[in-house]
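To close the chapter, one final illustration. This time we ask the reader to focus less on the individual chains and more on the assembly as a whole: which components sit near each other, and how the overall shape emerges from the parts.
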Amino acid sequence: MSRTITYREAVVEALADAMEEDETVFLFGEDVAEAGGPFKLSEGLLERFGPRRVRDTPISEQAIVGTAIGASLSGLRPVAEIMFADFAAVCFDGIVNELAKYRYMTGGQVDVPATIRLGNGAGAGFAAQHSQSVENWFLNVPGLKIAVPGTPADAYGLLRAAIRDPDPVLVFEHKHLFNHKGEVADTPEVVELGRAEVVRAGSDVTLVATQLMRHRALEAAELLAGEGVSVEVIDPRTLVPLDLETIGASLDRTNRLVIAQECSHDGSWGATLVSRLMADRFEMLDAPPLIVGGDETPIPYAGGLEELWIPSVERIADGVRRTLAF
Amino acid sequence: MSKTASSTVPATVPLEEQLEWQRAMLEIRFFEEECHRMFARGLVRGSTHLAAGQEAVNVGACRALRPTDLMACTYRGHAAVLAKGAPLDRCFGEILGKAEGLCRGKGGSMHLTDMSVGAIGSFAIIGAHLPIVLGTAYAEVYRGSDGVSLCFFGDGSTNIGAFHESLNLAAIWKLPVVFVCENNLYGEFSPIAHTTPVDELVVRADAYGMPGVRIDGMDIGVVHTTVSEAVARARAGEGPTFIEAMTYRYKGHSRADPGAYRPEGELERWLERDPLILHERALLAQGVEQTVLDEMRATAERTVADALERAMSWADPAPETRLEDVYA
Ligand SMILES: Cc1ncc(C[n+]2csc(CCOP(=O)(O)OP(=O)(O)O)c2C)c(N)n1
Ligand SMILES: [Mg+2]
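The assembled structure is written out below.
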């Protein structure tokens, strides 16, 4: 049996189930306890689990990330919330120099099972410092795992997997999807890290997208179906580890690759994906891979400008058409 | 300063333990001297930051902890990690980049770590470890245990943001942390007075409603007493303490820095209050024979030389190990 819940409800449920399952799991961050979370992603958890396990912190992102690192070294499974992912900039050292490298630099003396949840993405007019797709900043940092759930089922399943994982996992929760509804099983499933989902089967072109773009990619695929084009939509769900096998196998059949991403090109996950696939599958391609992404600018505030910046269904569909016409 | 000054050891510390302090300080001093020579011989990659002169802070503080308590320190951390109980040979091994080094040759001089003795890390990004001990300390509270986390850092580190975030959170959560500032008067090549608008760093504890105390860091008895009190408060759930220990590094900041920016005579004045000399006098005053102390010194020197010889004989890490330990 299944039921329909929102992305937000899925996050709350995952946190609650993780805390129920494992006494070492605790949640902390700015306004996560008494206020139930700035985005209400921890509503009711303080009442249920008490202040030892659901804690408000000062506005101190470095202290938040450090607390997560230290607690995980000491055998707990901390879940830290960074309200807007963009604030990762003020605790970048903790994430990239300490958290990511702790196991390596100590020659494997420790497990670092910390989970950092970050509010990601654009679409709601928060302007350039509260809207970025911050997962891209961490792609060049071995040691981190990166999850980018796009549906309630994945928001639940990936968060559960992240919390159980012995390595640090950054879980980017997309702000523009918090009210998005989707199906989950009565007892929702844990989603293994590193497994892409083929969201829609197709034979003419492989269209890869995450989070908000996954939904727009699906809409674009429906639109194109009306034009007789069969689009396969794949959501990697985690960028590290990246399921190249599933995406590569699709590409081997469709011979065309389009990526829709909510960020500019350089240093992005899409650029990485293209380079990885090209290294092994150059001859499989009938057209150059295409990335439909944001402009090479900060994200603008005004509604019309922001909508132009974020790839639209039409822009994605157009990218597919151009690739097919090559 | 009187040439007959000695460290002030409380009657409650057994003589045997006081002798252990001296042995530990001697081994560290010889260890650091070996490192200095190793560096000159090109055996140490990158950089190395010696703690010679600061032994009383590291040993006095670590010996106020239980083996199960945790300690984090800086890249000037050989002394702290040894004081917490890491083996001499595996510390040398790490600095030499050997497979049997503490961190399998992946950390080096600036990152000595030995989780098995509670030395949770040596950190080379200024201030990075202060937030981390918040987490290890909260884990103790979370479990209802009474373990303590102690954190060493330099005077210069009190000017970085992480310091302030950490003292604030430690205080508001009443965490069992002891913050030990090793004030050696310089951050790299800058005198602390040129970079810091307060004369005494300990006043910064006030801003976080935390007890703070400034002490003579060359006097191992004073360090031990002060840290013991702070540890007791932490264990009792009374929260963190800030200790500013006045000390001095005999060598330059790192590598071959001769410390030319130091005023004439400053080093000599501090050498007169060398922690090993002060404590030796305290031991003599309690009736320990000079011959016993001389023998202790000779044994320490030999122990360190043997440890280095062992470490030098170890293999380099196998090439494939570079790919290990990124993920579980
Ligand atoms: C964030 C950061 N900034 C600068 C440096 C370069 N650096 C290394 S040690 C040091 C001086 C630190 O002085 P202090 O905290 O007093 O410690 P000490 O070396 O005296 O023990 C500096 C500036 C660094 N490692 N990290
Ligand atoms: Mg200093």
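The first strand of chain B starts at residue 70 and ends at 74. Chain B touches chain A at residues 70, 101-107, 111, 113-116, 120-121, 123, 125, 128-140, 142, 149, 161-162, 165-166, 168-169, 172-173, 324-328 (CB under 8 Å). With these observations in hand, you are ready for the problems at the end of the chapter.
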